Automatic annotation (TrEMBL):
KW NAD (keyword) present: no
Subunit structure: Homodimer.
Protein name: Ribokinase
Pathway involvement of the protein, from the record: Carbohydrate metabolism; D-ribose degradation; D-ribose 5-phosphate from beta-D-ribopyranose: step 2/2
Sequence positions that bind ATP: N180, T200, L201, G202, A203, R204, G205, G232, D233
Catalytic residues in the record: D233 (proton acceptor)
Task of the protein: Catalyzes the phosphorylation of ribose at O-5 in a reaction requiring ATP and magnesium. The resulting D-ribose-5-phosphate can then be used either for sythesis of nucleotides, histidine, and tryptophan, or as a component of the pentose phosphate pathway.
Organism: Rhodococcoides corynebacterioides
Length: 283
């Protein structure tokens, strides 16, 4: 069982030949709505990779909220601990031009209202094998969730994204830190506080450093990458599900999950069957 405590957004993306300058209006050619937010994306990735997933988070009471809730349920995620708060859901307003240059405005909305955990949330954390955390909700809530996990026997995964200061109090209760190379650099020596550090290396795969200090590099399968959006989230979801098989086995599976996500447009985490199939091909 995996519990995710994190963000959920509606991504509203407009395509336009060229991005508007301040004060300018341009015609768009396409509008795409899609569920986003690192918490929701990692929850979906874990569910597709075969996990039994619960989501602790918040949506607003606007028109996006029912769609966001349904998008989690469509992947079999338990949303009993997804609360509805007055006001707007989290929204990312994205513009993309023909040169693939973009602008993004993220309005945290309901994600920012997640300032404390209820009894049901704590029960969902304590009853899980794995707790998956990111930094798109208030940091004190992330710390409280990690501490609740420690009181149970729940393994705490933290993907410290977006990059922002991480309190030592949080790093000290993390079991597995999952970082890309820029997050690794931003944290510096602080990564050493975590018993396990998994660093994703893009097309080069990933690296695991365990409590014994042993470092294992796992190459990524060679694929035709067309869109790396969501690769890190697909990696993290697959890693969390496979962790029970041991860290290195889990990283081997996660690199396949991450690589498959890059072969599809948008946020598209693979299923367990797709990962199984690809893992055989790449073996
Ligand atoms: P992020 O997207 O968070 O910056 P990375 O770029 O390190 O993270 O990618 C995460 C994982 O996705 C990698 O560890 C790898 O498994 C997979 N991946 C990303 N880019 C490629 C690629 N070009 N080819 C194969 N696998 C990739």
């Amino acid at each position: 069982r995996i519990t995710v405590v994190g963000s959920i957004n509606m991504d509203v993306s407009a395509r336009t030949p060229s991005l508007p300058a301040p004060g300018e209006t341009v015609a768009g050619t396409e509008l795409v709505l899609g569920r986003g937010g690192k918490g929701a994306n990692q929850a979906v990735a874990a569910a597709r990779a075969g996990g039994d997933v619960r989501f602790v988070g918040a949506v607003g009471d606007d028109a996006f909220a029912p769609e966001l809730r349904a998008s989690l349920q469509a992947d079999g995620i338990d949303t009993d601990t997804l609360r509805t708060t007055p006001g707007a859901s989290g929204v990312a307003v994205v513009t993309v031009d023909d040169a693939a240059e973009n602008t993004i405005v993220v309005v945290a909305g309901a994600n920012d209202s997640l300032s404390e955990l209820g009894a049901d949330d704590v029960a969902a954390i304590e009853g899980a094998d794995v707790l998956l955390l990111q930094l798109e909700i208030p940091v004190p809530t992330v710390v409280a969730a990690a501490e609740a996990a420690r009181r149970g026997a729940t393994t705490v995964f933290l993907n410290p994204s977006p990059v922002r200061p991480v309190p030592d109090a949080l790093l000290d209760v993390v079991d597995v830190l999952v970082v890309n190379e820029s997050e690794h650099r931003a944290l510096g020596d602080a990564v050493e506080r975590a018993p396990h550090v998994v660093t994703t290396l893009g097309a080069r795969g990933a690296r695991h450093r365990g409590p014994d200090g042993v470092v294992t590099e796992v190459p990524a399968p060679r694929v035709q990458a067309i869109d790396t959006t969501g690769a890190g989230d697909a990696f993290t979801g697959a890693l969390a599900v496979a962790w029970r098989d041991g860290p290195v086995a889990a990283v081997r599976r996660a690199v396949v999950g991450g690589a498959l996500a890059t072969t599809r447009a948008g946020i598209a985490a693979p299923t367990a069957a797709e990962i199984d199939h690809a893992a055989q091909d790449f073996a």
